[in-house]
Amino acid sequence: MLKTKSSKSIQGEYIMALEDKYLIVTIIFCILLTASFGWGWWG
Amino acid sequence: MDSKTMWVWGLLILYIIYCFWWGLKGFFSEKTTSGYGIAGRSIPFIAFLMAATAASFSGWTFVGHPGLIWKVGLVYAFASFYVLTIPITGAFFAKRNWLMGKRYGFITPGDMFAYYYNNELVRWLTVLAALLYSIFYSGIQLIAASKLFYWVAGVPPTIGLIFMAFIVWFYVVTGGLKASTWVGVLQFLLLVGGIMLLGFYVIKSPIIGGWSGMSASLKTLDPKLSQVPGLIHFGIGGGWTAVMILTYMFALMGIQSSPAFILWNFGIKSPKPLAWQQVFMSTFVVGVCLFFFSAFQGMGAKILEMSGDMIIANNGDVVPKLMTKFLPGPVLGLVFLGAIAAIHSTSAPYIGTGGTIIQRDVWWRYVRKQQGSHAEQIWTNRVMATILTLAAVVVSLTSSDAIVMIGGFATTFGTIMYLLLCGVHWGFKFPSIGAALGLLAGIIVNMLTYFVWKYPLSMHTAFWGLFAGFVVAYGCRGLGIKDSEETIARQKEVRTWLNSIDGPSEKGKIWRTRMKIVVPIWYFFALGPGILLGNSAFTFCGFPAIWAWQIVWWIIGIVMMWALCFKAEMSTTSEEQIRRADIELMDVTKEADA
Fold this sequence. Notes:
The complex is a heterodimer. By secondary structure, chain A is mainly alpha-helical. Chain A has one helix at 18-38; strands spanning 7-8, 14-15.
């Protein structure tokens, strides 16, 4: 099941919600994609 | 027949088999009115995620969007922000549509509005708006299909148009909403893959010379193509000013508030996919397609035209000509299917839901006086969908305007639904008669500001229609018109229940407060007057200033949508909410006799 809230586990460490992880990956992808044009990867 | 055409036909036949299979599967399995019309409220997570995205971004995205970028330049590429403005409407209303459908058993948006406002005129006007929307919007999809078929396979436009209409008609009328949703899953993959493949081949072609070649060529083009011309034009029309870009986005915000999408919201099994569809599938995945690959196509075509390598007569020809010029056989077949999938993915749900709306709200309610079996309703639904398809074909055969702009006009009939939705879901307070007259005023003003005085003050029809709607609705309140006791009690019950089941958590409240500031700021800089700064603010990686501005605000927009949909809890639901929605039923809608 999808977990849509950040929370703390019983041990007290921070558990990141699935959508937060997706957001981080998404933003990194967007920045790298944009940068790849400057790196000459697209000819 | 050359090998390219054989690839096109071969893959098209496979696609048709897939579509027809789902149609026939539905034909033999769907036996109830709600099963056929709203998929028995059982559309699964992944199917809605992909199909709703494909339906939102249609043939006009695939064919029309690069075409207008070619024609207008990077100024039009601001329209790519509809990857965000379409789903933001979903964030405002979709979850509550589902909750309302679940509790009260609504099948059509007319059911919901007529119940809440206790007024049958609202139902009739919703049907009218749905009809206008579905006919024009499906019509432009078919125009795009016919152009594509002509340039890629040499099929005469009229025959191609009718052939494409037949395919979509067949699987919609046989299979119902579930069939068109599952076909939409494949269509989403083809749509995204097709846009990326074509953009990739365009930019990597030796004539364009890769990104470095395109970037250098862009600097030699007319500066008008990459400059927003001003804030506003005091007159009729006036081009792509900042307020035109902003209000054009209002039109596209009407896609997910359209009667068709409301009906689709009633059909999903659970609201769980909503936030994911809005943030990641729409804003991110389709955003990558539009901000990069569609723009490559549009500006690539402009560069080719200026260098004399391509002759383009009108914007509808851009994508088909790029396809035939750059793509090898198998890829041409795939991209062609991507375009056809994009076109069908939109026309199918609009024809299907349009048929259901007319059948339920007019035929069953008023002609049959709420009598008739499930079987009778399904068959009459099919007849209505057929009539709607024929009307769309007639519109598309007689239309001459740019396909994207007709699409923009069609979606204004979804934007006007904001009036009623704001009342039902967020308690905007105006009397029942104000709702009806406001909707009527909106429809009339939509017509006037498109057919008579097109885009006064360089502001799109969508703005004027919605503005008129709210002025009339609140004008009725200002005149002291009161609702009946029954209406007041009914609305109070709905408000109490919605607030009880869908109130935000303490954290959610904090996020909502923040978003009331963040969202307007984003609109101001990404789409509003702030875009004038983008004409020369900054550049990076070879992107012209206006393009760089768009990319930056798109990435910020993804974060904003994540915050709005997930953190501010506009599109998320808890297990407790779903549990309550499952048991707190108060069915006010008769489905069928037996």
